[in-house]
Each structure stands twice: as C-alpha cells, then as structure tokens.
Structure of N-methylhydantoinase A:
Amino acid sequence: MTRRPIRLAVDIGGTFVDAMELDTRTNRVRFRKAATTPARPADGVLAAITALGTDLSEVELFIHGTTLGLNAVLERRGGRTGIITNEGFRDIFLIGRGNVPSDHMYDFQYQRPESLVQRRFTAGVRGRLDYRGRVVEPLDPDSVRAAARALVVDQQVTSIAICFLHSFLDPSHERAAARLIHEEFPEVSLSLSTDIVREYREYERTSTTVLEAYIRPIFERYVDELEAGLAERGFDGRFLIMRSGGGSMTSAVAKTAPTHTVLSGPAGGIVGAAYVASELGRDNVLTFDIGGTSLDACVIERGNPVAAYEAQLEHFPLLIPTYDIRTIGAGGGSIAWLDHGLLKVGPQSAGADPGPVCYGRGGTKPTVTDAAVVLGYMDPDRFLAGTMGLRDAEARAAVQEQLAEPLGLTVENAAAGVFDVLLARTVGAVRQITVERGHDPRQFALLAFGGAGPLLAPLLAREMGIGEVIVPFAPSGFSAWGMLSADIVNDLSRTVMATLDDADLAELEQLFETVEAEAVASLVAQGVPAGEAVLERQFELRYLGQEHSLMVTVGRELDRDAVRAAFDETHRTRYGHTMGNPLQILNLRVRGIGRTDRPDLETRPRGDGDPSQALLTHRDAYDFGRHAVVPFAVYDRARLEPGDTFDGPALIDEGTSTTVVPSGQRVTVDDHGYLLVTLEEAA
C-alpha cells in the first residue's frame, strides 16, 4: 500500500483553532485558523480543516491537541459521576487535603469550589487489602451490586470511579467489582484507579480516577463525533491525540484515558520547542506561549523539557505525567479591568465568543488585543492575513471609556499600562520555573509562540535580562506544528517505597521488566512494532524524611552508587546542596516511546543582509524603549531573508502574528528564517 503523503495537526485554543498541514513529499507546511466553537468543539476543528482545504483522503496521520477535558471540569460539564470505594472510606475524595491555595493564604473566609461528586453519589463496599496488598477481607459481591444499584438506579449516575485502599499493589478487587457492575449495568462507564495510575496516596489516586470518570463520557462523545466528521470527509488514516506529558496516543486509547489529554494543547508547543532547541543547538530554552486565554511557560533544560508527575485541575490533584508548565490567565483575550482604581489584567477572558471588542462580535470589555490595537501593533486590515478586519475605533473607545478616563490617563498610556500589568504577571510566572528552581533566566533563550507570544516576548527578555528571543515561523500555529513531531508514548509506574540501600536490586529489575512488557504491549496495540519500542527507566527518589522528590534516569544495569551520585547532582543543581540521608525510592517509572519522523527544518538561501525588500511601510506605535509613540518600520516576514538584520523599533507582520521589537533591540534572520531578537549591544 502506498503511504499517503499528508500529515495534519489541529490544536484547539481558547479563541482560535489552528490547523497545520505537512506535505512529506516537499516538506511544505500550510497553516490556517478558524474560530473556536465552545458549544460544539468538533465544528471548529472541521471548519479549520475546511479553511485549509486539505484533501483528507490523502492524510496518513491526523494528530489533535485539545483542552476539552480541562474545560469540562472548569465549566462543570462532565458526566454525573459516582464513587465506589471501601466501606468506611466513602469521604476520601470529599475531605481531600487541608491545604489552602497560595493565592488564598490569608483569606480566612476561603471556601473550596463545589466538589465534582456529591456525597449521595458515593458508596462503600465490604472488602479490604492491607498496606502490603494482602487480603484482609474478601470482596463482597452482594455489597458491590447493592452499591451499584444505589448509584445507578437511585441516583442516576452515568459514570463510576472505582478506587479501593492499597489497590495499586493488587488490582484484583477493583477488577472484580468492575466485572460485577458491568454485568448488571453494561451502559455505565467505569473508571478503575489501577487502570489509570498504580501509585500510592489514596486521595490523589481517588481524585485522578474521579476526574477520569467525570471527563470520559463527554470526551468519548467528542472523539466519536470528530471521527465521524472526518470520516464523512474521506479520512481513514491514523487518528492520534496529544498527551499532557508529551507524545501521543491513538484516539481509541485516549477515550479510555482522557485525563492524559487535559493539557495536550500546550504540550504540542513544548514538543516542538524541544525539537527546535535541538536543531538550533540551544541546550537551555524557555518556552513562552501566549494564546487567546492563557500564558504558558516551561523550561527546557539540557535539551529536555522539565517534567512533573502531578498536575492540578482547580484544586483537584491529577497523578499523570505532564510538563512542568506555569499557566496564568493572561492571553490576547484577557480582560483589562479596574479593581478599586487598580488596573488588572485577567484571569477573565473574552474567549472566542464574544471575543475582544475589536472583533466586532459583541464584546464590550477591553482586552489585551484591544490594547495592542490602540498601541498600533496590529494592522486592522491585515489581521489573520486580511481575512478578518478589526474595528480599531471601537477598541479605542472601550479602552478610553473604561480604563483611560477613570485612571486619568491618555488612551495610549492606559493601553501601555495593560501591557505593563501583563508583563509583571508574566515575570512572576517565569521566575517560578527559573529563579525559584535554581535557574538563571539569563542563561536561557526565549522561544516565543502563540498568537500573542511574539507581541510580548522582546519586552519580557529586556525586563529579565534574557539575551535572545527566538520567533519561529507561524508562531500562532507552533503548537500544531509541534504535534507533527510527537512520538507515540505511554508512561507507566509502580510504587516501591523502600530505601535504596535496602531494596533488592533483583526484585527491582524484575519489576522494571514487568512494567516494560506492559509498555511494549501498549505501543504494539497502537501500531508501533515491538522491536522499535524505546524504553526509558526512571526512579522517583527523595532523601529519607523529605516531602518532595526528584526524578533520576537509570540505566539498564541498576547500580546503587550511580543512582546515588545522579540524585545528589540533581539535588545540588536544584537546591544548592546535598544531604547524607539514605535515599528512598518512591516509584519506578517506565516511558515507552514509538519514534515518529520529524519535519525537517529547512535551511534557506542567505540574502544580501538588506531587509529593505521586506519593508512595507512605517506606522506610529508605542515604543516601550522610549515610552512614547514613535514611527515603527513594518516588515513583511515572508519577504525577509536569512542574514537580514535591522534594529527596532520595528513590527514584523506575518498575517496571523506580529513580532513587536522596541528600540534598543536588534533582529537577525537566521538560516532557517527564524527571527532572533537580541539587545543591540549584545548583537
């Protein structure tokens, strides 16, 4: 069978859907956007594909990033969910932990958001394992059936989370309960904690399972609807969905593990950033992704994105592999507002509907995008390559009436204040993943993408002393482009809870081999030949007595001294010191990887260094280097050539995104056509 030449990636954002097509014959990339359709997300995906004009019968691979699961939790649109656990422990999820979010630390009236599961939707059953996984009390089938009837018949739940104490050591009770429930209620969706995560911590494991059960019904419907829509248009290739921790999985697997997709949109950009960092020879990179509703930042250290193994949705913990992303509610659609005379930006967003005032769709509150229009950064006639005009007069009026007049400022200074507030919030988020983790941001390059990333990145670089900003092609679609290079991945784990000195290395090796066999089987089921599966081993370790842990990669041969040395070095890098305490192994982890061919970063012919052929015009805009409105040179990015160099103030317009370069900074076009923004003296 002849391999079809087209790969297609689609990323749903808060405001726009980005579709990216790669023709593997020519390495040519095409990109289009369509409005996000929150009520029916699949419609926005199909609209973006239609705008791109891709012949789906020619598509070999369709890969998708979506925050549908995340939005289902935030908007409380998931399935009616129940919990079955051990008798006497039905309140584990409702009690949770006693911690208070840091932004409410001094709020003595703080109340946690309403739970996803009400108490009447929880049930306990007879049966118990001890802390070593031994049966203390056999599972009572009649108790399980009665609990299921109480939830399904009396409370009308459509999805059930099953999570028993210590089941991560032995899943037999959970699996037996699932069989009993399925026999009586085959239409009910069942989520087992041991199918999702085999790790200790009962509350976190229960929370993860509940979120899985809550998301699954709506996620399955969405994927089924999208698959049907693609099939109607001629698609019969492979359908993959991004994982939050990088890599991808088949749509069939995603429907059984939707929690792994909750941060899949931002993950695509980080996968692409790691690839670009490698190709450009940059070991340390900060990713800087600003979309319509949020700003996401992540560290790539020594070529690898920093990973985490616990995330949060609102205050609910999720035991899933994910990138260590710092997210704040600050994007192009973030609303600027006054709080007792103080200017604030976000976290509220105008989203896709109605959107910023300048979109002319009924939005009335000024946003970051409206401020950018007022400051002269966006050409109303060229927005989205001229396919969508902006109403600059309406944006200016909204900023004037709601911000400038109450603050006693000119409209330009009020709009500049919106950027100042956004920049201050951004610096705080970046410091959390750099300075507070022992990293000097001045030793990193800043990779800017998302529709508004290049708009703010040069200002952030100047504020934090970052020496270089990298702006890839089509930055507003960079996350979709990154998905094209995503491997097929599965992450598996087991809890160990033993000191490194006392652990039996032979038993650990046997456990690694068991988990690796599961990883290979999962990859084979997703079309990866067993012989091509790549397996990576890790220990999650801490000094005995510590609370927080660190990850250490281990080789095929387990060596205590090598593991200790690697952990000490990681701890010294992160915290500046080491300790003499014994090391405790919490979990062992295996990542199974099926490699994917990556799109080439083509080298383009160098020009004569003169960017004048790309100069479109000059336009007055606000220069943060001088804090005044001055003429900016406006360049067409498509006509810039490698070797071109010019100084700010300048605007580089590429239709779907604009790079804003204030005075005091210089732009150089590299051999791939990427923009490198540096301080003039550094350049």
User: Anything to note?
Assistant: The mean pLDDT is 91. Residues 202-232 form the longest helix (31 residues).
